[in-house]
């Protein structure tokens, strides 16, 4: 009998239902996997789906990626190599180390191009931004025909960079042309600006200022964001229009002003077409190098003198200069650019 009791299977205990504080029986936990909806047949797993979406995105981006590698990154790497070689576009490049940079720094015409470009950036950019901000302030007032005036002031930015406008501008400032006759009326000395090495750069600056449409539109968008309540409160306190502009308008649009200053400064360093066309009179870039901006001299060395190695070295010096000026502007914005809290 003891053997029978010993060999009897031990009964499996049944789970006791748990009871809550109110005496009710709580439902038992469902078995593992119970209650889940069955996976639909043919559904793609999530990792495979993500890879397929990424592949589609890269396919759509492939034209831009190919263009960037072939037309931007590739030529930049090649020009960095050519900057240390003697290369004339026809023969194989020969490594010469820093000779191009040494020759460039010792070239008085290169120093002239740096001076003219620096003068153009320092004078032309502020005048262009001042004209753009002034017209934007006028267009920000409610008046009839605003759409027409905005389009009319923006139009020069669309056509100002064309070759035809540069040719027309050169004709306007030539001897006996409209500007020459106008200055004679005011008792000024006769003579066109195009043939004068000291005044031809002013014609180039005037063309740049005339193309203020793009920064004007950006300024106008920033002015629309300034709350009118600030002007009304300042006017009630007796603030003059100048004080309202200096203490309300400028701080409120300072991020937009910084953007325009940065963009127009970079564009000023890159000027070429108008300087080359306005100054071309038998020799490129003006009489006595009056419009010899940096990019114009780079073009002369690279394509007229077939010294592509020296031109590549000049191009990289221009890139470093623009990068340095951009870094200084970003550093200085902490002192005069005011962002909304959390927007920086």
Automatic annotation (TrEMBL):
Superkingdom: Bacteria
Biased composition regions of type Low complexity, renumbered to the chain: 31-44
CDD domains recorded: TM_PBP2
Cellular compartments annotated: Cell membrane
Region feature (Disordered): 1-48
Topology in the lipid bilayer: Multi-pass membrane protein
Protein family membership: Belongs to the binding-protein-dependent transport system permease family.
Name of the protein: ABC transporter permease
Taxonomic source organism: Streptomyces gardneri
